[in-house]
Every structure is written in structure tokens, then in C-alpha cells.
Amino acid sequence: MSDPIVITLDLPAAHRYLNIASACIGALVERIEDVPDREMASYTIQLAVQETCANIVDHAYAATATGRISIELVLYAAARQLVVEIYDTGGAFDPSQAREPDLDNAQVRGYGLFLMNKLMDSVVYERLPGRNHWHLAKNL
Amino acid sequence: MSACQGAIIGIWQRIYEWEALVNLDVSMYSIAIVAIRDRIDAYNAAELRSRLEQLLAEGITRFVLDLSDVPFLDSAGMAVLVSLLKRARGAEGDVRLVWPKKEEAQRILRLTKFDRVFEMVETPTAALKGF
Q1: Hey, is the C-beta of A87 within 8 angstroms of any chain B C-beta?
Q2: 3-class DSSP assignment, residue A32
Q3: Angle between helices A38-55 and B103-111 (to 10 degrees)
Q4: B43, B47, B72, B75: best mutation site toward chain A, by most A Cβ within 10 Å?
Q5: Which of B42, B107, B114 sits opposite A18 (nearest CB)?
Q6: Smallest Cα distance from B119 to chain A, Å
Q7: pLDDT at residue B10 tops 80
Q8: How much is the ipTM here?
Q9: pLDDT at B19 over 70
Q10: Does A19 touch chain B if contact means CB atoms closer than 8 Å?
Q11: Inter-chain residue contact B74 with A47, CB threshold 8 Å
């Protein structure tokens, strides 16, 4: 099996720069051969990564303006899967505080994690020593 | 000028291009039609929210947000839409959304059931009917 293609980004943790991750994902998916519904796959992964990173900016790095977000795009071409590993050194995420949105009553907050889980095939969070790790995977 | 600034100024210009005065009493019957052409994301959301709040402060309570050309919509952008909806309905007004052309963006509105919370229409002209 061929080695995965790995692309690494190291972004300032600011909303201003999150579109860079979107652009890279779009460009990578464009180069993958035979992706059914390429536009949908690309948009889906871009949105899940956007939501993850926006949460990192707003919550993990709520107390600082100098954080960094490390993003690894890992393409397993043979397995037809794109994995996104996202790391930050901000405060820990507490899954017990995350609530599902009430979809029958539109609300201002709470859609980010819901969308991530709906759009990706796998979303896993783990707290590592001194940093957070989000593992997102999408079958192509 | 950043792409975002350009887009927001574009929105602002279109608001007045499209503002519909559907009766003699301008102050009571004005509807703001806001065409958005850029991403509505965590970066752009604050400025869009500020622009919409200016319109609310001017007494406008009925809004048509034309999302036809929105290439990307995230939950921060959706928060702006919901905030506007709550404030407009609280003032006896409403918000109608024109479907994005992009099927991917439409899917997000359906997944979150925004298409049931908002009145969705195909064109800005259709949005004005009975508004």
C-alpha cells in the first residue's frame, strides 16, 4: 500500500486565517482522482475543519490571542479516506458540556459539534499532555 | 482592502439598491433585501451582524437575506441569521432566506432544519410576495 500524502499547516489561532485551511482542503480534494460528488466531499471536510478550528479559537484559546493550530491533512489514497488531525495547546474540551441543539427551536449556539458529527465519518477528541487532539475522518 | 471588507461594502450597497418600498408609508413598509456574496463564517460574521443591527436600529424589521451567491456558511454565520430572526420576530417582523445556489450550502440548512425555521424562497422577488 502506498504511503499516505501528508500536508501540514501551522496557523495562527484566529478566525481571520481559517479560510486558509479551507483553501488547502479544496485544493487537495481537487487533485484526488475519482471522487464521487467531489464538491460535496470538499465542502463537508472544509466545514468540519472550520467548525473545529473556530471552537479552538473561541474556547481552547479563549484566554490568549497568541495560540497556534496545527493541522495535518493525511490522504490515504488507496483506502479512499482523508483524515484531518488537528492539535492545539489551549484549554481542554469538556465533552460533558456539549449539548445537542434543539433543531425544532433555532438557537444561536450549539451547531458546530453537531455539524462535525453529522458531516464526518469519524470525529474523535482526546486530551493529550498539554494539548488537544481532534481526529476527523471522511471516506471519499 | 480585504476580500471581506469588499464583500460587506457590496452588501451595504445592495441593501439600498434592493430596498423595497411597498406602500406610501416608507417607514412602516420598508424591507431590506441583503445580498451576500462572500463566505459567512466566523471571521465575517461579526461585521455582517453589525450591519444588520444598524438596519434594525433604523427600524427595519423585515429582511430578505439573499444567500444565492454564498459559497460557504458555518455555524457562526448561522448564529447571525438566528439572532436576526429572533430580533426581527420580536419586533413583529420576519426574515426570509433565498436558497444558496450551492447544493452543499443547502444541505447545511436542511441538516440544521433552518429550512423549517425560516421561510425559504427561490428568488428575492418571490420573497417579497405577501411580506
Answers
A1: no
A2: coil
A3: 50
A4: B75
A5: B42
A6: 13
A7: no
A8: 0.89
A9: no
A10: yes
A11: yes
Q: What is the end-to-end Cα distance of chain A in Å, rounded? A: 17
**Residue in A with minimal Cα distance to B107:** A40
Complete DSSP assignment for B2-42: -HHHHHHHHHHHHHHHH-EE-SS-HHHHEEEEEE--S-BST
Q: Return d(Cα B31, Cα B22) in angstroms, integer.
A: 8
Report yes or no: A56 at the B interface, CB cutoff 8 Å.
no
What is the C-alpha radius of gyration for chain A, rounded to an integer number of angstroms? Answer: 15
Q: What is the pLDDT along chain A (140 residues), one digit of tens a residue?
A: 678 999 999 999 999 999 999 999 999 999 998 899 999 999 999 999 999 999 999 999 999 989 999 999 999 988 899 999 999 999 999 887 877 888 877 788 889 999 999 999 999 999 999 999 999 999 99
Q: Which residues, in sequence order, are CB contacts of A70 under 8 Å at separation 6+?
A: A8, A9, A10, A11, A86, A87, A88
CB proximity A118 to B under 8 Å: yes
Whole-angstrom distance, CA of residue B130 vs CA of residue A20 = 42
C-alpha triplet B44, B46, B52: angle, nearest 5°? 105
pTM of the model: 0.87
